[in-house]
Amino acid sequence: MKRAVFPGSFDPLTNGHLDIIRRSSPLFDEMIIAVLNNPDKHPMFSVEERCEIIREVLPTVETGSCKMIVDSFSGLTADFARKSGATAIVRGIRAVSDYEYELRMALMNRRLEPQIETVFLMAGEEYSYVSSTLMKQVFELGGRVAGLIPESVEARMRSKMS
Ligand code: PNS
Predict the structure, then answer these.
(1) Best of 21, 32, 36 to mutate for ligand 1, by most ligand atoms within 8 A of CB?
(2) pLDDT for 104-135, tens place per residue?
(3) How far is CA 108 from CA 36, 78, 103, 116, 123, in A?
(4) Of 16, 19, 91, 111, which residue is least crowded by CB atoms under 10 Å?
């Protein structure tokens, strides 16, 4: 049984994340989408809200027979992956600029848990500039984010602002 962890902040979930989930699902039997609970950050959505959003949107993604689980975690991704019985950590690469940071994380995670491999997937070109941070910024300043985040996420962002 091949189990993977896809860790992230997911604040909020974007269509880029969904693209990575769709692309990685044929590679694994089970995937845990793991939302980081980072008390140092001031997220737009609470961890509970982020998990709820992912659970709500997941049925719209083609994930075939891969079982999808949504969970949250605190502390190290490598610890969470080991405790979950995962053999892989999935991360998306959008552009070369992501590579250096992702490489450092992958090497550190491998040092911490040598039996867990990081699997990088290339995001679709149409999402190469999409990040949660950029989506929040553009949305807060009144720009259009339709097509880049799920509609339900946009609706929740609207109600947060009002
Ligand atoms: O969606 P993000 O914000 O790019 O995700 C980054 C994340 C959550 C994968 C990374 O910050 C992380 O793994 N944090 C948990 C703490 C940890 O394990 N730090 C060491 C990484 S080598």
Answers:
(1) 36
(2) 999 999 999 999 999 999 999 999 999 999 99
(3) 17, 9, 8, 11, 22
(4) 111
